[in-house]
Amino acid sequence: MFPWYEKGEPILWWSPISRMVLYSENLKISKSLRKLLKENNFKLTSNQAFEQVIRACASIPRKEGNGSWIHPEMIEAYTALNQNGFAKSVEVWQENELVGGLYGIDLGGVFCGESMFSKVSGASKVGFVWWVNQLQLKGCKLIDCQVYTDYLASFGASEIPRKLFLEELNKWKTV
Fold this sequence. Notes:
Elements: E1 2-4, E2 12-14, E3 18-23, H1 31-39, E4 43-46, H2 50-59, H3 72-83, E5 87-94, E6 97-106, E7 110-118, H4 123-137, E8 142-146, H5 150-153, E9 158-161, H6 162-172
Parallel strand pairs: 7-8
Antiparallel strand pairs: 1-2, 3-8, 3-9, 4-5, 5-6, 6-7
């Protein structure tokens, strides 16, 4: 389950019938992204600026125009999870400025992505690919992307039924 929030509404927990996931070995990198990765214009870090990342994610307008689900109580909760080693962030820097990033919950063999942002073209893509590679190195098999987007599908993510997602979650999580 993951939180979904609309302004003026209570926090709801979602477990959709179909779950968007990326099996780490299925990561697809487009030609243009390969070129961007080779240019090496970004510095990448992990867990160096968690609160900055989550606040940046909260400030990015959603296409639906409903505001962000990442309100102060969620920032506080995820920051506590980060301080306890469960929530992780990826930071994408350009000339010492945070220009992209993502965060989520690390369950060992499963990473549950929560949100990402980009202030510079390609920054979140570079951060995502770098993070998937880091996760693969530590044995992570499954990245939970929550719901379908064309953006995530372009990386090789696909929808699977909730039942299979729960089986995979139980199979791969180690915490």
